[in-house]
Amino acid sequence: MKRPKIILLLVLGVLFVALGIYYWLVAAGDLPTWLPGYEAGSTHVHLKHGLAAVLLGVACFVWAWFASGGKPALETKSEQNKEKE
Hints:
This protein is mainly α.
C-alpha cells in the first residue's frame, strides 16, 4: 500500500521540479495559456512561480523519503509482547 504512494510522490516531485525550471527558462508571454503567470506579450520571467514549484517538488521528495521508512527501531514493551503472542 505504501509503494503506489511513494511512486506518485516521486513522479509529482519530478514534475514540479521540471515545471520550476521551465518557469525560470521561459518568459511569461511564451508560457502556455493554462499555466498560472501567463501574460500575453510579456518578457518577464516568473522567478517566484519557479521557486514555488521547485519547493513543492522537493517537499514531495522529502515526503516520499519519510513514507518509505521502515518500522521505528524502538518499540514499546506492549508492542513487543503482542508480537511474541
